[in-house]
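To close the chapter, one final illustration. This time we ask the reader to focus less on the individual chains and more on the assembly as a whole: which components sit near each other, and how the overall shape emerges from the parts.
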Amino acid sequence: MFIRFITTGGTIDKIYFDDLSQYEVGESQVQQILHEGLAEFDYDVVPLLHKDSLEMTDEDRKLLHDYIADDDGDRYVITHGTDTMVETANVLMDVAGKTMVLTGALTPARFRTTDAVFNVGMAVATAQVAPPGVYIAMSGQVFPAGRVTKNRAENRFESTDRN
Amino acid sequence: MFIRFITTGGTIDKIYFDDLSQYEVGESQVQQILHEGLAEFDYDVVPLLHKDSLEMTDEDRKLLHDYIADDDGDRYVITHGTDTMVETANVLMDVAGKTMVLTGALTPARFRTTDAVFNVGMAVATAQVAPPGVYIAMSGQVFPAGRVTKNRAENRFESTDRN
Amino acid sequence: MFIRFITTGGTIDKIYFDDLSQYEVGESQVQQILHEGLAEFDYDVVPLLHKDSLEMTDEDRKLLHDYIADDDGDRYVITHGTDTMVETANVLMDVAGKTMVLTGALTPARFRTTDAVFNVGMAVATAQVAPPGVYIAMSGQVFPAGRVTKNRAENRFESTDRN
Amino acid sequence: MFIRFITTGGTIDKIYFDDLSQYEVGESQVQQILHEGLAEFDYDVVPLLHKDSLEMTDEDRKLLHDYIADDDGDRYVITHGTDTMVETANVLMDVAGKTMVLTGALTPARFRTTDAVFNVGMAVATAQVAPPGVYIAMSGQVFPAGRVTKNRAENRFESTDRN
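The assembled structure is written out below.
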């Protein structure tokens, strides 16, 4: 079982900048999370973009789309800023035969209290278990692309299905 | 979407006892993990047993089996000690029509560095996404019951499938 | 024994802002740290300023100076940004009869890995044990004001004493 | 400035044992704490004993006493179980000319929420700032030896001074 992680930026990998003594932590948070989760499967991490999701353009989404469409993998976890995660998920929906799971965090992974570890855990399981398609793993839930929205006022992801 | 969590003890909920000033932290670690994971779905937590998994008896397993078989839920996450998690998973395999995911931790959830958060994240996603059946979510992987073993020397779960 | 904590901003209390879903955590990090440190003494926390220390003006320093000079306390811990902590310490040196300890952090207290807890622990002990005067508690050391500098290239505080 | 750390066991360094897959974390928690506190001074760590403090004998205390009395250092931080920390402090009171600070933790340093980091921060500052003598740094306070007791019912250290 092999999962390819693609990082695109967003809150999960937020880097803190001090005014003078700026520093940047290089190590991918995804690797740190997998290490702490004692994950024992084959994976690699592709740092494709490094943007807040509000700054992500149509071209960025096409880059991600084409990267996955042309790649030889079957399972993808894509870390992404939360504000436009839904839009990016929609763009990926025409890639056939692959399980693609977008996740991220409402609080940076470097914080002491963060949803990042739980979310990556959800995404990793979904990439293994779910049939091909695009999913968003956030707010403790796995949503199919096209049926999910971010409720910004409540700062959570919600299903758009009628109950 | 509703998930019933059943806690049975094990390392994930390990309580630390000092010699004199013994204390016990009452709050379930599962609830703490869901809270930090910003999980927004309906759930409850049933504390069924509180045992190291090496001490778990056939009667204990029957209790768990019958509890789930007689219950009206569809999705279960069962936290369990790791040493006999595989045996308990096997006992649950004849319960039809329900998705049951066993998980736990190799390091207590109260530790600063722990696999518990990642594992519960995996289990929660699996309970939502996987077809009915019994699964073990450990070591970064989701294993179907009956095809997984704990490699004690390496302290990890492994598939018994031939590659 | 009573310690008055005065917060002025800086990295230790750094608040993270997301682009859209901005949030601010209100609770003072000092209180959180004292709570986790199981501190059992009387104190209060005065939020006097909320600035990066590079933006701190002479007027801000005079405000802090006069607040302490006019106050009826004996022991102070002042949390402060690191870049101009030395300058603020110098300004306080003419306040007589009080023990004043400046501390802060090179990494925000909300981070999982941070020097904030250790530093506040040092400052609290120094406020109790040291004779009246101004001190900086950083980099694992307690420096008297006037004999300490921040080495920005190395991101640490150092004594200016000749060895 | 040089501090010698002497570890004797106790809750701060508590090691967790699983039933089957027992593991022991070798690295001293003191070093981990100093590293995270970004401490920049010379020190070494002497692992003298490894006992719960209830099991500490008069001989153990004599060993510690003689080690320090015969050693060429000036400043000591001694990590120690909390239940008999007061007794050990009393035994050290006849060592002249050295600053000796006992500290420990009510919750293991490996826990996510622990007083260990704060306490070691206090002890390190006290070892630098306090005049020669024996101190206990616990419960957010620095107590002189001979004037402190552990209130076991309340799980905290208290001064025995009349107010």
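Residues 18-26 of chain A have pLDDT under 50 and may be disordered. The interface with chain C takes residues 11, 14, 16, 18-21, 23, 52, 54, 82-83, 106-108, 110-114, 152, 155 of chain A (CB under 8 Å). With these observations in hand, you are ready for the problems at the end of the chapter.
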